[in-house]
Structure formats: C-alpha cells, structure tokens
Fold this sequence. Notes:
The structure holds 2 protein chains of 2 kinds. Chain A is mostly helical.
Amino acid sequence: MNRSAPPLPRALHPGAWWLWALGLATAASRTTNPWLLLLVLAVAGHVVTARRSDAPWARSFAVFLKLGMVVITIRVVAQTLFGAAVPGNVLVDLPEIDLPAWAAGVTLGGPITDAALAAALVDGLRLATVLACIGAANALANPKRLLASVPAALYEVGVAVVVALSFAPSMVTAVQRIRAARRLRGHPDRGLRSIVSVAMPVLEDALERSLALAAAMDSRGYGRRASVPVRTRRLTTTLTLAGLGAMLVGLYGLLDGTGPAALGLPALVAGIVVAAAALRTAGAGVTRTRYRPDPWAGPEWLTSLAGATAAIGTIVTSLLAPAALEPVAWPLLAIPLPAAATIGILLASLPAWLTPVPPRLASGSARRRHPARSPMATDPTSAVAATTSASSSEVAA
Amino acid sequence: MIDLDRVGVTYPTDTAPCLWGLDLHIEEGELCLVVGRTGSGKSTLLRTLNGLVPHFTGGTLHGRVTVDGRDTATHPPRELADLVGMVAQDPRSAFVTDVVEDELAYGMESLGLAPEVMRRRVEETLDLLGLVGLRSRALDTLSGGERQRVAIGSVLTAHPAVLVLDEPTSALDPPAAEEVLATLHRLVHDLGLTVVLAEHRLERVVPFADRIVHLPGDGAAIEVGTPAEIMASSPIAPPIVELGRLAGWTPLPLTIRDARRGASGLRHELAQLPPPPRCGPGPGAGPGPEAAAAPDAAPVLRSGQLAVTYGHTVALAGVDLAIAAGEIVALMGRNGAGKSTLLQAWTGLTNPDAGSVAVAGEDPARLRPAELIRRVALVPQEPADLLYAETVAAECAAADRDAGQSPGACARLLERLVPGLDPDRHPRDLSEGQRLGLVLAIQLVGDPPALLLDEPTRGLDYNAKHRLTGLLRELAAQGRAIVLATHDVELAAAVSTRTVVLADGEVVVDGPTPEVVVGSPAFAPQVAKILAPLPWLTVDQVASSLQAAS
C-alpha cells in the first residue's frame, strides 16, 4: 500500500469551501463571546493562508477584513453618538443634545461607559467575523466556479448570474472611459451633473455589450434543450416551491436560537431533500453536459464536516451553557471559554492540514508573447521562463 | 458547403434592403474574403450564415441560405452551433466564462458532448492554436492576439465545418495580426475548414484568400471572383495592388514576394530619381517638417522622464518627448506598450507617478476641462464616447457652447470635414468615418494647438482613410502638433513625419518615418517592403516621383 504518498495538488470543490465557511459563519452569528469570535477569525485566516491559490480572487480575504474593520468602526461610532446609556464606568461624558418630541427614544450624546463601548465593539466584531467567513470562502473557491457546479436544471440561471457578475467590472471601466470623454469635451468631470450625464452612455454601452454577448451565446448553442411533458413541468414547480419554503423555515429556526427546536434542522433537511427531487425532475429537459466537473471526494467531505463541527459546537453550547455564548461583555478577562464551541471551532481548522494543496498556475500572470509563425511548436524557452516566473512569484509571496 | 440563393436582407427600420440578390456558392475548404466599404453589409452577410440574421437581429431574409444542407430559415443559430463557428468582432464581448480552458469547453457543454470527448478536444485545440501555456489564465489578462486565438479556439472545439470571422485583426498590432492569420491559414490548409471572413485591412488578408466577395454597397451588383480578378478593378485595394496597377504589372501581384520579383525594373528606375520629400506630396504639405520643427520653436507637447504605473504594472517608464507645431508623429508599438497611456497623460486623464507633462507650456492635469479643450484635443479609441446628444446639430451646438465659440462654428467645420452630413441624424447612426469626422469637428472647434488621435483608422475603409490623411496634413500645415497612436503602418507611412516606437513603456525608436520604417519587419508599409532599400513609402510618392521624372 502507498498510504504515505501525499495527495496530489488539486483545487477542492468550491461547494466544500462554501459549506465550511457557512458552518463557521453560523458559529460566529450565534455568539457574542469575543474570544470565540476571535477564534473563528483566526481559524478562517489560517485556513485561507494555508490553502488559497494564486488566482486573482484569492486576494479577496483582505478586502473582506477591511470591510469588517469599517463595520466595527461604524458600530462603535454609532454607539457613542446615538446609543442608549448602559450602566458601567463612565469614560467620557459627551454633552447631551435635546431632540424634539418626535425623535423620542433617540439620544444624541450623553455619557459613554466602558460596558457600552465593549458591547458595541463585540457586536461589530460579530458582523465582521461573519463577513470574514464569507471572504474566506471567496478567497478559497472561485465564486463563478461554484455557480457553474449547480445542478443541471439551474445551469442557465447560473450562467446568467455569472454573466451579470462579469458585467460589474466592465460597467466600472465604461464609467471611467465615459467620464474621461466628458473631460475631453470640456465638461466638468466631477459633481452630480457629470454622473447624470454619464449614465445614459453607460447604459447604451451595457446594452450593446449584452446584445453582443447574447448573439455569441446563441451562436454557440446556449439554450438547446429536449422537449419535456407538461406533467413533469408541473411536478417540478410544486416540488421546487415546497422545498424552498421548508428550507427557509429551517434556516430561520437554525440561525435564530429562540425558535422551537423542531423548526431548525428537521425542516431544513426535509426542504433540501424535496428541492433536490425538484432539481432532478427539472434536469430531464437539459441536454448539456459538464466539462471537467469538480470531484466530491474525501477531502471535500472532511472540509464540509469540519465547518459543520463549528456550527454544531456552538449549538451544543447553546443547549448546555447558553450564558457562555452571550456573556456580559465587560470585563474581557472574566469571559469564559465554553468547551464544546471551542473544540468545534478549532476542529474547523483541520482543512488547513488535511486537504490537498491547490495547484500553482503554470504561467503566473506574466504577459508572454507566443512565437508568431509556429503556433504548434512547443517552445522550450517559454516553458523554462514560465517555471522560473512561477517560482519567483512564490519567493515574492 | 455554403449556398446563398438570391439572398436579400431588409432590416425593419430601414427602407432600402441591406443586401440584395446575392448568389454565392462557397466550396468546402475555401477561404473566402468579404470586402466592401463600411455599411455595405459585410457583417449582415456573415450573420446570415449561422442564422443570426434574421433569427436574432430581426428583419426579413429573402431567398435561401443553406449551410451543409441545413436551411438557416428553419434552423436558429443554436441549432447551427455544431456546424458554423462564429467569431465576433470584439472577442471580449463574446466571452462567457473567465478562464481560457472553460471558455474552450463552453460551446461543447451546450452541445451536450460526452466528457471524454470534451477533454480530448480541449487538449487538441490548445495544441492546435498554441494556447497550452494560457490554459488556466484569466481571459481578461490576455493580450489582443491571444484573446482572438482563444475566441477562435472556443468555436473550433465544437468541430464546425465553417468558421466565420468578422474583422478578426482590426484591433490587433501587426505581429498579433500575423499570428492570427497564420492560425487561420493552418486551419484552412491542414484541417480543410471553410473560412469566411470580413476585413478592412486588405493588405493583411488578400494573400491568404481563395476568393473575394466584393460588396460595393449603394445597390451596385455584387462581384465574386478570385483575388486577382477582383483586385484588378476594385475601388478598394491594398497598396501592393495600387502599386501594381501604377506600374502596369500583369498578372497583378498579391504577395510581397511576387511584387518584389516584378519590381526590379521599377526599383532601378526609381533609384535614378531624387528621393521623395519627407512629408509626402499633397495639398498643404507646407514647408516641410524640417522648417516647422526648427529647434528654436517651443514644443507644443512635451514629456520629461514621464513615468506612469497602474498598481505593479509599469505603463510608461521615463518617456522623453518633445513635439513641435507642424509635426505629425506616429506612435507605434504593441498592444499594451503604453501608447494610450501617453496620450491620456497629455490630456490630464492619467496622473504621472514621476516626471512631467506639458501641453502648450501648461500641466494638463491642472487645467479645468473648459481650459483643456482650448489646448489639446483627443479623439479616443471609441469616438462614440464623446457623443451623447440626439442629433448631429445638437452635438455641434453643445460643442460651440463648451468651447465658447460663436454658434455655427462647429457646424461649419463639420461641413468641411464631412460635406453634406444631415444635421438631423442621430450620431449613433453615422458610419465610422462620419462619426470620426463629427468628433474631430467637435474637438477642433476650440482651435487647440495639439491634436491626439488614438487608433483613428479602426473600422475605416480606404476612402475614408484617404480623406483622413489629407485632413491631417492640412491641420498640421496650419501649425498643429498631431500625434497618432496607431497599428496601421500604411497610415503612419502616408501621413507621419516622425515615428516613435514604444515598447514596455519606453521609447525604443524615435526618428523620421522613412528612416524608422524602411527595413523594419513589423512597421514597414507594403510599398517600402517592395522597394526596399529605397525610401519610397506610399504609392502616391512613387506616382509623383515618376510624374516629375517624365
């Protein structure tokens, strides 16, 4: 047996990373324990650094972290300005501004206590942690690839979403181009009026692009399908609606800890089963096939289960010691660390060691020209250049 | 393979048909070139071949189009996807996925091919088109030539019998265009693919064509024939053909090789004559660039050690240029060499990271837009970006107001550039040449001393290019400094007095155009390739030299 051989480098199924991240995000959303939240952040960050590829989207984790900082800042500022008084040690006493009667219940200014500040900080941290989990999924799995691996029946919806996603960057470049053109014509390129005058050409540009894309997709066979009997179509519709409804109820029950227990996991599982059946019947009319579908094997199971342990850990803690999940936020050192949740979250870091590493791109992002005359000829020098550029980028990283 | 039987197309909003009475039979394995002026119906003809006309565009199709026995009237484009591969004009707008390998597989997925077949064909196509090194690259990081080859590959994987391409090289620099054409040549010769392509730059594609379909537009009869037959009388012809006609060579040469063999007599004759004046003949050539570029004249456009970066990409790295009034400078270089960035820096659209830029002695980034248009005019790659009014007349009136000119100034200028343009037409309905004229009129109404053009000949036919050449000479003679960023070596040779070649953001060559382009494999115009080492660059120069001698 060759059990000792390391797994070949390969990209994990994007769905596995998203399930893992959703598990972590569920854990984060159910607690205001700052230690647990920081632990979730650390686990997410560690797995991202260990298992992200060198693709462009792999850099998105930092963006989400920055977004999280903004959220925390906004939350704290809002608390200091508008927050209701919380008993505790007064740090600063801002002058309170009297508001008219219709704004009753809103205070502006007033004393700021350490407890209020800590509560706001932790609340912001929870939102930032959830954002970081989504950022981790984005960095580890190409979101478009995830959409491409939806069931056959949803493929065309998936393609529409993918196209819409790639439209956003092209809209941004169109706006820049047309604003530049405004300046060239001697119009002011700042201010509200310039934005209004840019809108029309940008829309025209977007419409022209979408028409060109639609023509290209039509020419390449988009939308070829087999005929489906009416009864199958009706069955599909019924199953889809029932499944989605059950999933919605189940998710609500799971994420909102105050709901009855029967609403949570059972409803979600039932919904998933019904929806899967709906997708199966809907897939009958689709003739398309899939190129190199991502496999779902051991590492994928491990990753999604690792994410689930984090969620399960917090759920167990919420049943055993609910106070530990939502402790009084001050003083920090007095906050306990519940065992089940801690172990669950720590287990979620296992994919950092136990999954295969992602493959490195062969040619990096360096721009290289190909020999013009002989496209068939394999060029040994460019191959060497590719390996060196790849290894140098590793060094740089 | 392809049969067109008295085909006509009428779009719903038009009164006159776009195509009429077209009979055409294209054999298997043929490379058929569709030529004609802008607006003569080239794209419409190509789009009838896979049913996009009329299924996608609307309109009425008369007659019958059959491809390999399938009638396009009853088969929508998606039912022809396995038979006709359609490569759009701008591949960027046609990409569905974001990675090369997935893009190659997309069409096959739609056709429902088995996974093993898809895998094999993707690998074969990667090899065939030399894309192996690019397989996992993101599509928006590709260069123009690579992008075009991926677009070709993405339709080839479906194993179509017919490949249809709409202006595949018009946006490419000369080496990238050759890369794409060499690929097409291989596909026709090795795989027996039938290729139909439309192209404005005849000098690039005529040598490859088996047959030419000439759409004269304006209702005249459509001509179909071998390249030699069509080129003998066609009003649009590449310089090599015009030189052949001038020298009276029969048969007419279509490749540089044939022309060089036939040109030994002409070369001998020209060697006895004085070299052509540098600016080229023509009205308004003025006293010549030497006088205009006198050292004491202050340069209109200047850049000193100019450096611009985008993130970690260096677009310009220390560019020193000074351009005087009366000069026409051709700015050449690969896609991404920094040409557009340099023009943008001169209009204050890009802030330099280091160094300085000056237009008529002032920093363009500090000028308010209203002041800017009196000093420098830029015609961007997409002239339509500058247009937003409903009619040509409203556009002109707005330009007069912006530039603080008396009403009617822009309309008068436009009348000189594009005579007889209907002022009530919508700017988006104009032809490429008319639109370029309108944008030039708008930009020149403030009478700026510097004029910058970014790829002005994209989509222009030979006649429109000819008018542009005369116009630019006239503007330079009035004392303007003109810079053209272009891939069009023929235009650069015909109009420029000086050529600057950029590579990786640095000036590689800077000198008088004849010295730079003669002997350069990438930038020499056809006439220079035929007559090298003599310094004649254009057919007009040869004609006037011969005329002066006789």
